[in-house]
Write a structure and sequence with these properties.
heterodimer; A: 124 residues; Beta-Lactamase; 5-stranded antiparallel sheet; 3 helices; 29% strand; globular; B: 266 residues; 6-stranded antiparallel sheet; 6 strands; Secreted protein (chain A)
């Protein structure tokens, strides 16, 4: 029985090193919910921009004829990890969870595992 | 205007696109009621937007039932049981028909979609009826400023994809994709319903998806040449193209740009 806010809160408490998190609709590019962020990381800009990342990968998969689904996308910066997890709801709403992590404190395997759990708890 | 009570109505004539001084004032005074325009209605509770409806956007019931989250009968039952108490949303979750997360996201989707049209270029007067509440009940109130900001962002996004708004309202006519063109799954679902009669709004209804989402895809497909631009559909005889003799002074700059572009692409 989680809603957007509690799911994002859970992401920030259960995942080590979270800088910011957002639940994003990738057709409109709108963040349906955000948590954290700072003047260095504007989450609504990150939300809109990362929709292009997701769409580009989906299009590439169509071009390659890959009949598979994206589970998550990892972008690794010098000091941060940006993790995108696509949400496979029964409505196929076209949503993804976006989490920016501090590379020094984050455990990538644990973060991916937790995001999967949070996706399930969203029940969308 | 702090002494206003239920039933009072104020009217303004506004022509501002995606921003309304009247709405900002209502938010500041934490007003409750219905903000009515020809393009739809925004419901406010204590200055925040709790619900939005527009004839251009499929309502929550369409998104939930056509989208597949809820059988139509389930919606009707919740309406009968909880409509009078203004608690339909709570009933849908309480009876286990829809999860809280699903309802919240669907409701937000419908709210921002309808608000985009309500806050679009205004035609006719704007009314505000104090004290009116919506029968669905509150799910996730959103600040007025956030809704206005999102409406502006959406308008800008559409124009950056394809600047001609005429594809938004014209019937969608698909073109055969070139051999090297990719059509995404979502676009295919949309094109299957494009029969040359349905407009983007009608397609949104049939798919149970927000209209804005359909408009973005249609504009992307217009930019990619996957749908026919409405202007090209005007019969040749009706077009007023100047003949070569009408053109006394050819636009040299334009011709040069065209030549450059052609050379670039060869």
């Amino acid at each position: 029985m989680a809603n957007t806010e509690t799911a994002l809160k859970e992401a920030s408490t259960s995942i080590e090193g979270v800088i910011g998190a957002a639940l994003v609709d990738y057709t409109s590019g709108m963040a349906l919910g955000t948590l954290g962020g700072s003047k260095d990381l504007d989450l609504s800009v990150a939300a809109a921009g990362n929709t292009d990342v997701v769409r580009a990968k989906l299009r590439t998969m169509e071009m390659l004829g890959l009949k598979d689904e994206i589970e998550d996308i990892l972008i690794s910066l010098g000091s941060q990890y940006h993790l995108i997890r696509l949400i496979k709801g029964r409505n196929n709403n076209g949503l993804f969870l976006y989490v920016a992590l501090d590379k020094g404190r984050a455990n990538l395997a644990m973060a991916r595992h937790q995001l999967k759990r949070i996706e399930a708890s969203l029940e969308v | 205007m702090t002494t206003t009570h239920a039933g009072t109505e104020v009217t303004a004539h506004e022509v501002v696109a995606a921003g309304s001084p009247m709405l900002t004032r209502l938010a500041d005074e934490r007003a409750t009621g219905a903000f009515l325009r020809a393009q739809g209605i925004l419901y406010l509770a204590e200055g925040r937007i709790v619900h939005a409806e527009s004839p251009s956007a499929p309502g929550l019931e369409v998104l939930l039932t056509v989208g597949g989250a809820l059988p139509a009968q389930g919606w009707q039952e919740a309406l009968t049981r909880a409509g009078a108490r203004h608690e339909v949303g709570r009933d849908l979750v309480g009876s286990g028909r829809v999860s809280a997360g699903e309802l919240e996201l669907c409701h937000l989707g419908a709210l921002f979609d309808a608000a985009f049209f309500v806050l679009g270029p205004a035609s006719g007067p704007t009314h505000f009826r104090y004290g009116v509440t919506h029968w669905f009940g509150q799910v996730h109130p959103v600040p007025v400023a956030a809704v206005e900001r999102e409406a502006r962002r959406r308008r800008a996004l559409l124009d950056s994809v394809w600047p001609c708004a005429d594809v938004d309202t014209a019937p969608v006519v698909p073109r055969t994709p070139a051999s090297d063109q990719t059509v995404t799954g979502r676009q295919r679902a949309l094109l299957r319903l494009a029969d040359g009669v349905r407009t983007p709004t009608a397609i949104a209804w049939a798919l149970g998806r927000p209209t804005f989402h359909t408009l973005v895809e249609i504009r992307r497909m217009a930019a990619a040449g996957l749908v026919e631009p409405p202007r090209a559909r005007v019969p040749a005889a009706a077009r007023t193209v100047p003949g070569p003799l009408d053109c006394d002074e050819p636009n040299i700059a334009l011709l040069r740009r065209l030549r450059d572009a052609l050379e670039e692409s060869l």
